[in-house]
Amino acid sequence: MRPPPGGRTRRRGLSLGVLALCVAAARCLQSQGVSLYIPQPAINATVEEDILLSVDYSCDGVPTIEWKYTSSWGVQKIVEWKPGTQANISQSHKDRVCTFDNGSIQLFSVGVRDSGSYIITVTERLGSSQFGTIVLHVSEILYEDLHFVAVFLAFLVAVAALLISLMWVCNKCAYKFQRKRRHKLKESTTEEIELQDIEC
What we know:
28% strand; membrane; cell membrane; signal; alpha+beta
C-alpha cells in the first residue's frame, strides 16, 4: 500500500521547520555571547608615561563599552561609548583619555594617583555583558633623582678640582715671590757687607 502523497510533504516540511528552528536558536544563542580578551592584565608604569589599556572583544552588533577606575578612594567612571560614536569622557579624565573601537583606551601622562584597577564592561544590544580588569601600578621615576645626585656630585668634584688647582697656582706664586724676596734680601745684605768692608 502506498502512503498518501501529502504525508511526505508534511514530514519534509516538519524537518525543514525543525532545522530552521535549530538554526534560529543557534543564532540567538550566538548573539547573546560577548567575549573579551585582555592581553596584559597587569601593567607597571612610571610617572608621565602614556599607557595603553589594551583589550579586544567580539559580539554581534555594536556594543556599549564602559571603563571605570577603582582605588582606595572609591569608584569613578572614566568613559562610555559605542564604537563609531563620540565617547562620553568624565570631567576628571578630559584631555587625558583616547578611545579605540576595539575597546582599548590610552591614558596620557599618568601619575601615582592613577594606580588602581581599571574595569571594562562590554554590553551587547540584547543585554548580555562581559567585564574584565586591568591593574595599573604607577611609580615615581627614581633614576631622575639619581641623575640629579650624580650631576650635583660631578659639580662638587669640578669645583673641588678648580679650588685645588687655584691653591696650587697660588702656592707656586707665593713660593716664587718668597724666593725673589729672599734673593733680593741676600743681595742687599751682600751689598751692605761689601760697603762696610770698603769703609773699614
